[in-house]
Structure prediction request, 699 residues.
Amino acid sequence: RRGGISRDTGSTAHRRAQQLCGEGPKLPHPPTSSPGKQPRTCPNNSSATSSPKAARKAPAPTAAPEQAPSTTGPMEEEMDKGRMAEELEMGAAPANWPSPRDLDDLMADREVANLQSLLKANGQTSMQQWLQVDPSQGLSSDIEKRRTIYGRNAFDAKPPTSFFAFWWDAMHDGAIIVLSVMAVVTILVWLFVETPKCVPNGYLEPVALVFSISVITLTTAGIDFSKERMFAALSDQLDASNKKFVLRNGQTLELPDAEIVVGDIVTFNAHNAASVPADGVLVAGSGVKMDEAALNGEPEPAEKSAEKPFILSGTVCTSGSGKLLVLAVGTHSVSGKIKAAVYGEAEEEGGSPLFDKLDKMSLKIGKAGMFVATVVFLVMTIVGVFIKGGPAREIVHYIVQAITILAVAVPEGLPLAVTLSLAFSSSKMSLDNNLVKTLKACETMGSATTICSDKTGTLTANRMTVRGAVVCGVVKPALDPRIDTAESRKSVGQRLRADKNIPNEALEELGRLISVDTMDESAVVFENGDNAPPAFKGNPTECALLELCRTLSIDWRGIRDSAIGRSDATRSQGHPFMFSSARKLMSWAVPRERGYRVYVKGAAEIVLSRCAWEVSSTNRVQKLKDERRESFYVNDVVKSFAASAMRTIALAYKDFDRLPQDWSQTTDEVKKCGRDRRLRGGDGARVDGHRRHRRPLAR
Prediction:
């Protein structure tokens, strides 16, 4: 066992696959079964169960040979019963689909040998074929049917806490308990000791205490009740905005996690779609490494390939990109099972420093009041009864006076004042879009002196725009948009097209480079019509480059769909090398008529250091001398753009004479490309502000 995963041949999926293939103990068959016909894993008819384990429990005919000893123990039998109940609750799978139990056992074992055995036993070549999904097109129908059979990729919402529960919780505060005891004692003393006839206004003290208790508890419960509803609405909004890239009907859609079903093709990468929402197998990918520390504690990322295709929900992609075929969702996934084990447990909430001090102070005041009341009672009893010889019934009045001293000592106004002040603070913070779930958090937030926040998406809108560019040695500097001129109103693409010193062939090749060397998830779409601003989907930097292509009147989507080695149909003829923090660049190799070309996009200083040639204004390739690289590109271009708080990106390519026989053997060659790249151009992109045009921040 490693990481809690069984690797012996006695695992559930492996044993069931052996039984189906005839390699293990034979299962008893009903007399009506056809001779030589192997039992399917997921039949869908009224005369058969939906799993082989159910067939194992079926009564054997009297003439059947002696059954082999069972290899399952009582614990496995109980687990089988639970899984059968879950499967019946979800619904039986069609005969040509795997049953929920098949997928559950497969993801529990996570062994390639078991996967191959299970596919062979059911006459399938791949899980895509078994689930009837095209990896290049995704699902097209049966979405609701799959959700009914295999479950939802979500949990049922927790029942909201009632107002009475919040009120009851507020009643358990230490100061409230002391005030409640004093209210009961004082009203009993007034009714049975002082009597209403003798002291007609004796009810004022207990009524004041009850009023304070009611105001404190009802205010606290009301605010907690409303804040929980507000947080539930906010959580729903966040869940709806947490979307993944899913391939359906040949189009990449952004869907929330709850919409993902078994059989979906989910695309992921290490940039903006790193989190995996469900369990599955890798069907396509390049350099995929997953961080599984949250599940098994391993600090090093696990490499995923055809030999190790299983990817678990809750893991994060740290390198590369790929496509995931979803096999388990919701409570059937690994992270879902962990969440289900702790889902609904009460959270232990500690008090804030202020409330802890108030409780300690109330306890000390109560002890001091009790001590003073006791001393006063003893002194009055000794003096009045034993020294002056008063009647014994005076002891009752001495007790009443001692209780009065204790009631005065309890500060009933202190918790009321604190609760009202925190309620006022909570309402003021809500006006600033700062929701406070519990009143106790106001005191902690009010003590904060420094707030550390991520820039991207918080201070800015996480939206990039190309502001300056250098193509074929022609510089298009960044113009200040606050200065309204005819030139500043033009986009960089329009300025490049209008320049006669830049050949159209160079711009076309620049557009092809950007179209090919960007991720599938990055796209610029017009959701609200052509006149509305375009919406960026995916990596903001790549979206800015694709927007540059659009302003250059280049159909980047058409190039993606038609370029050999880049389109989905011909992806196997090319090879991508995704961005990593170590390389600081991304490459994509596509075949040509003779050999192949590697397009490169990355940090300007990294790409420039590897370039030996540049494309001139006559669209010719000329030698890039070190002096020109340092004086012009580095000092005049890169440092100038960086001084304007822009992110600098360089674009280049390199041609190879022959296609590699094995991509894995030429990985280093293609990734590094020596020092023989042709510099195509450079861009300066910067971050746009959220509400107004802010000064860009370097990143």
